[in-house]
């Protein structure tokens, strides 16, 4: 029970809404967690919170966020990590030195009066954070335990600290903290930063304000990754299909947790501990096995979310035993594939060696990565179509996520890469747009929408852009004819061109681009375009608009492009 008198809510900015919407309970598998106190709707911000403790991941000078930083100590701490991680069995050590320095913020060294500050966090507040057992048989946990022994024995500033105490703190950071891009200028404006470079920046901006015409060089103080430990933000459970979206606001230094789909009273509130921009193995594509492996490596627990526990819709596959169109799902707990209809655990051939899925997954990932890299795209573009259509796709079950994703890559190729690489003439001779729209419809509707939207709406919307953006451009290009007006002045300039008295310095004016002439939509595009349009406008945008009441620039731009595209479709279909 979340009792305001019993708990410290000082970091919570929206205390009334928080207490009205959220409760603290202990649930099986996930332990202590925040749950919905009442039914919640998309767009509700259940928590807005400032960090209890915050520090830069890569400090480069002494500051209010790393008051004990020195180059020599930084070098020494990094050396311990490298020495202990020689076999590189632990995947998660780069943040250790910064977290170690941050420990001194809560437990300052007694002998260093000159730089001693009042502890920024009360020790007792840290009791509220979960951490894994120090005996845990996990390479990162054991590396941290060994590292803390070195630090507390050999570094003078840590001689008042017990190794166990430091290890517990570091594991609390690893198990609970968020990484956010912190803008040092906004901290400096609030008077928080005391670094020499921030002071220099303050001096320079004052000077620049006074002499506004001075061509001032851009500030070197851009956003930098920082670690933020949130008292209540760390009490949400992880899910691979979460019901919350996180947004960090630099100006107020707050993290907001917003509901993304309808939630019933009592439901566990979740966000994803996995990086949300990680296409495969993240929230959209990828296998249960990969996600669980990552969570175990980075966060030390085996995921027990609904998607991992029961049916991984991302990994569904036709049953080869009863030959039904029912799906075979991966059961994360038993670690086996099972048919929804006949219960068979006989694996379809694709999954038999687990090589099929792993191979398909690595191939679509590698292709997507190469195509996004301008230096590598050229070598892949020429082979993507025959490879996907002849080699890979025929081996993929139609209900498996790799099939959906491969269709997405093909759509991208037909709508964008083919015309931009080989020209629009060849693309139209090959009917590339029709093929691309059909493939886009499979990716956006059958895969992202039918399989994932209701359980994972926001990541679906983000992932859709890879294909939705080329769809918008191709449909817009294909339903308009550009029109120009050659202005009178231009005509006069042309007729005067031989006249030696004309002003030679006057540059000829370019023809003015007019609103394009809208053309009817080709009949063979209509079915797929309308299906995509229906999904995006009627099923996706209402939720996206509710969640992002004040959308960040990127989302606002996407919504604007979608709305213009919708107008174009209506105009062109009316002809
Ligand atoms: C950031 S804490 C969440 C709050 C924590 N339960 C507490 O008591 O403070 C992360 C820990 O919660 C548990 N947990 C969170 N999500 C989980 C999930 N999907 N499956 C299993 N355990 C989970 C794990 O023990 C994990 O190490």
UniProtKB/TrEMBL annotation:
Acidic residues: bias regions: 498-509
Secretion signal span: none
PROSITE patterns found in the cross-reference section: SET (PS50280)
Pfam entry (one): SET
Domain SET: 22-274
Entries under InterPro entries matching the protein: H3K4_H4K5_MeTrfase, SET_dom, SET_dom_sf
Region (Disordered): 193-219, 490-511
One GO term describing the cellular component: nucleus
Protein name: SET domain-containing protein
């Amino acid at each position: 029970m979340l009792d305001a008198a019993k708990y410290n809510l000082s970091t919570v900015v929206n205390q009334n809404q928080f207490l009205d919407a959220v409760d603290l309970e202990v649930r099986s598998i996930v332990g202590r967690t925040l749950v919905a106190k009442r039914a919640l709707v998309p767009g509700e911000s259940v928590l807005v919170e400032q960090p209890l403790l915050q520090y830069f991941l890569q400090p480069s000078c002494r500051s209010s966020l790393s008051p004990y930083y020195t180059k020599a100590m930084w070098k020494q701490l990094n050396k311990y990590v490298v020495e202990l991680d020689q076999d590189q069995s632990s995947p998660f050590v780069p943040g250790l030195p910064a977290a170690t320095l941050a420990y001194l913020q809560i437990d300052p060294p007694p002998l260093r009066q000159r730089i001693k500050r009042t502890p920024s966090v009360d020790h007792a507040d840290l009791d509220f954070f979960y951490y894994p057992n120090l005996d845990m048989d996990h390479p990162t946990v054991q590396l941290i335990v060994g590292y803390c022994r070195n630090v507390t024995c050999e570094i003078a500033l840590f001689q008042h600290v017990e190794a166990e105490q430091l290890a517990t703190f570091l594991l609390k950071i690893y198990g609970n903290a968020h990484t956010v891009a912190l803008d040092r200028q906004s901290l400096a404006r609030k008077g928080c930063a005391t670094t020499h470079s921030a002071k220099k920046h303050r001096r320079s901006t004052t000077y620049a304000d006074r002499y506004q015409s001075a061509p001032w060089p851009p500030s070197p103080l851009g956003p930098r990754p920082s670690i933020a430990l949130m008292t209540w933000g760390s009490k949400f459970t992880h899910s691979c299909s979460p019901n919350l979206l996180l947004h960090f606001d630099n100006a107020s230094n707050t993290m907001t947790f917003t509901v993304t789909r309808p939630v019933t009273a009592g439901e566990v509130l979740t966000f994803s501990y996995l990086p949300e921009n990680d296409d495969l193995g993240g929230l959209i594509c990828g296998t249960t096995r990969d996600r669980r492996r990552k969570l175990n490596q980075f966060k030390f627990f085996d995921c027990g979310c609904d998607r991992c526990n029961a049916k991984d819709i991302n990994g569904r596959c036709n049953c080869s035993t009863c030959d039904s169109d029912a799906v075979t799902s991966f059961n994360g707990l038993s670690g086996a594939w099972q048919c929804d209809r006949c219960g068979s655990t006989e694996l379809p051939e694709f999954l038999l060696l687990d090589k099929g899925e792993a191979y398909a997954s690595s191939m679509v990932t590698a292709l997507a990565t190469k195509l996004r890299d301008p230096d590598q795209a050229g070598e892949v573009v020429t082979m993507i179509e025959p490879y996907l259509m002849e080699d890979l796709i025929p081996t993929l079950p139609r209900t498996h996520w790799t099939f959906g994703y491969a269709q997405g890559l093909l759509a991208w190729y037909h709508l964008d890469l083919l015309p931009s690489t080989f020209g629009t003439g060849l693309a139209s001779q090959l009917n590339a747009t029709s093929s691309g729209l059909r493939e886009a419809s499979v990716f956006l509707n059958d895969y992202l929408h039918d399989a994932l939207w209701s359980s994972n709406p926001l990541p679906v919307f983000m992932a859709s852009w890879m294909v939705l953006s080329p769809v918008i451009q191709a449909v817009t290009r294909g339903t308009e004819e550009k029109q120009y007006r050659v202005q009178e002045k231009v005509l006069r300039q042309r007729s005067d061109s031989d006249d030696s008295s004309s002003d030679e310095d006057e540059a000829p004016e370019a023809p003015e681009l007019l609103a394009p002439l809208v053309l009817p939509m080709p009949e063979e595009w209509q079915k797929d375009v309308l299906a995509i349009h229906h999904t995006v406008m009627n099923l996706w945008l209402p939720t996206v608009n509710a969640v992002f009441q004040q959308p960040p620039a990127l989302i606002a731009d996407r919504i604007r492009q979608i709305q213009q595209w919708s107008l174009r479709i209506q105009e062109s279909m009316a002809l």
